[in-house]
Amino acid sequence: MKAMLIATSLLLFAGCTAEVGREMAEDECYQIRNNADREQCFKDVERTFENY
């Protein structure tokens, strides 16, 4: 989970827009099979991108 957020942050620093980074992070969340983990992933994405 943390690795995904770090990777998303690195993509943002590399010049991607916040929207592209958010979409990539959400795509990763959709691949999680466990419902609780998937919901936590979406919450983490929301918290990460709330100010962008």
UniProtKB/TrEMBL annotation:
The entry's keywords: Signal
PROSITE patterns: PROKAR_LIPOPROTEIN
Signal peptide (from-to): 1-18
Protein name from the UniProt record: Lipoprotein
Upper taxonomic lineage: Bacteria, Pseudomonadati, Pseudomonadota, Gammaproteobacteria, Vibrionales
